[in-house]
């Protein structure tokens, strides 16, 4: 298969290079392809007109045909692939409106490179990365390039390659002035890429960002689907225990009308206990299984959250008997310490186990919800601390006053002893006189 001699150099006039690429595309596409013959009349319009002036080539008409046929480049030999795409991108750059043509090129690059199954992804990423970096920072075409890059990384499970650059994502979106639909598209694909790359927490973070773009249409079918997806992800995550990020969303609140069972399940994990979850399962048949949820994961999470609730409620004695934990979690007494240790590892509680007393001494606990009750508790603790500090201040003042009195007494002593010296000197003088 003949190559293109000037692809890597990208030298020559638009007309010459366009004809060259068209001929190459015809070669790749095989018999019946006539891209070169179709653009020849369009290129001929640049010949001299009367009066010596030249017409301007209708570059957009030429590029439409070239870009449409360029999906065939994915079958080009590996050694020619990058040069061929570079030439196409170079030609697109000469259009008055290059943004029209780059998105389809990006889509082509996300498709499999049939001529190089092993190295094709790396080549495509190299082309897209070069294209992204050559565009102006505020050029919204960068958005389409980034979508293609993330799509490739999602397909290959290489999310970690783009993670360092995502710290700039908010600034990019602001520069590109993306609308909510475009932001949502990007967040969703980032969520999928993070999931395939083994980063469930980051996947959930971007999924939540996607849900937030729909709050103005919280009751729409799209908002419902995304919200349920986010809810399922949060419930199944072994590291996610705070559900207030979901309950604060209008689209999640809308589930109370459209999906009452899902809403009820969410409320259980917000502030209920393992016993309540058992009642839910008894009352809703095979709902958990039918929805593809892992019952073991839900049980474990709810037991840990129940233990956190017990710790938060132990505000007076700050201790929880093993027997109380065993009953609340519905576990054998011998497994209590294991569950407490797991709860500590999850960061829900801090404390110390006493095997001798068979109790858990709570040092710190996580409140699953934070409302009026918790504010009252904080106010009570602050009042206690204020009273304690007042008492400390009284003691400090008393000690300070006592210290001052002692110092004054020490200073007064030498002065009083020194007051007799003039008398002694007077008597001495008198004796000398006598």
Automatic annotation (TrEMBL):
Q: Name one Pfam family in it.
A: eIF3m_C_helix
- UniProt cross-references to InterPro entries, sorted A to Z: ARM-type_fold (IPR016024), COPS7/eIF3m (IPR045237), eIF3m (IPR027528), eIF3m_C_helix (IPR040750), PCI_dom (IPR000717)
Primary localisation category: cytoplasm
Q: Which GO terms describe its molecular function?
A: translation initiation factor activity
**Keywords of this entry:** Cytoplasm, Initiation factor, Protein biosynthesis
* One GO biological process term: formation of cytoplasmic translation initiation complex
Question: Where is this chain compositionally biased, Basic and acidic residues type?
Answer: 420-434
Give the location in the cell. Answer: Cytoplasm
Residue ranges occupied by any PCI domain in the UniProt entry: 199-367
Q: How does it assemble?
A: Component of the eukaryotic translation initiation factor 3 (eIF-3) complex.
Q: What is this protein called?
A: Eukaryotic translation initiation factor 3 subunit M
Q: Which organism is it from?
A: Friedmanniomyces endolithicus
């Amino acid at each position: 298969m003949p190559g293109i001699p000037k692809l890597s150099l990208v030298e020559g006039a638009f007309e010459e290079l366009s004809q060259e690429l068209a001929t190459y595309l015809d070669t790749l596409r095989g018999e019946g392809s006539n891209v070169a013959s179709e653009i020849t009349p369009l290129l001929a319009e640049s010949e001299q007109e009367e009066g010596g002036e030249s017409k301007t080539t209708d570059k957009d008409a030429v590029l439409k045909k070239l870009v449409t046929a360029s999906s065939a480049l994915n079958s080009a030999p590996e050694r020619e692939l990058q040069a061929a795409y570079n030439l196409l991108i170079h030609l697109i750059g000469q259009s008055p409106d290059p943004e029209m043509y780059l998105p389809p090129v990006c889509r082509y690059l996300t498709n499999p490179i049939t001529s190089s199954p092993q190295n094709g992804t790396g080549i495509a990423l190299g082309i897209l990365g070069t294209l992204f970096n050559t565009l102006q920072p505020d050029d919204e075409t960068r958005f389409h390039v980034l979508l293609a890059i993330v799509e490739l990384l999602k397909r290959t499970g290489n999310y970690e390659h783009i993670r360092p650059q995502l710290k700039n994502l908010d600034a990019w979106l602001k520069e590109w002035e993306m609308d909510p639909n475009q932001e949502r598209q990007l967040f969703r694909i980032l969520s999928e890429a993070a999931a395939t790359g083994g980063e469930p927490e980051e996947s959930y973070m971007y999924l939540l960002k996607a849900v937030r773009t729909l709050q103005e249409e919280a009751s729409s079918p799209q908002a419902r689907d995304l919200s349920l997806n986010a809810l399922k992800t949060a419930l199944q995550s072994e590291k996610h225990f705070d559900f207030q990020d979901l309950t604060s969303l209008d689209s999640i609140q809308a589930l109370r009308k459209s999906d009452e069972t899902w809403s009820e399940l969410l409320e259980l994990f917000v502030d209920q206990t393992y016993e309540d979850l058992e009642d839910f399962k008894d009352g809703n048949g095979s709902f958990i299984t039918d929805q593809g949820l892992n019952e073991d994961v839900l049980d474990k999470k709810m037991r840990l959250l129940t233990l956190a609730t017990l710790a938060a409620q132990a505000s007076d004695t700050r201790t929880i008997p093993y027997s109380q934990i065993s009953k609340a979690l519905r576990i054998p007494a011998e497994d209590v310490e294991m569950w407490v240790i797991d709860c500590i590892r999850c960061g829900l509680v801090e404390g110390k186990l006493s095997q001798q007393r068979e109790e858990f001494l709570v040092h710190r606990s996580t409140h699953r919800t934070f409302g009026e009750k918790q504010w009252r508790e904080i106010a009570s603790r602050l009042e206690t601390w204020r009273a304690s500090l007042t008492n400390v201040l009284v003691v400090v003042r008393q000690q300070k006053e006592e210290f001052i009195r002692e110092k004054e007494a020490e200073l007064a002593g030498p002065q009083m002893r020194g007051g007799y010296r003039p008398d002694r000197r007077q008597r001495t003088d008198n004796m000398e006189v006598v």
